[in-house]
Amino acid sequence: MAWDEWEQLKAQAAERHSTKMELNQLPADPGGSGGGDSPQGDLRVSQKDLAAVGDAAYQLHQDFTHYSTYARSASLTAAGGLKKQGFALGAALDHVAERWADQTRSLLDATAHISNHLDYTKGAHAGDEVYIADSISSISTLDDGFDHRSGHS
Length: 153
What we know:
Helices cover 74% and strands 0% of the residues. The protein is mostly helical.
């Protein structure tokens, strides 16, 4: 492909597709985020959703631990064999296996962090639910007291 042909193809592609950014979103609610049938502004997640993400992170952690250990072991064995036979590739493969171990630790730490954080979030939100329920219960008790005193019972 000649340079001129490449430039022509780029120009045609630019004509077909604007370079502006497009966001997939609901139109802005002119009345704010509350009220109406619009769920906009409300973040909802169920404990089932959190549990599924936490379970997936845990399973990834378990599986990757198993398979990465096997891959590293096989690489180190191959590296040792190549070094014994005098191949420079053995030292390079040994270096790759060590870098693999570093990257594996990073991924395993991240998946453990996700799983642990979701467990913490689940407990924290459960505590928030109890606090909110107690607060609302207290308010209704106060309301009953005011209604009783004003004769609206």
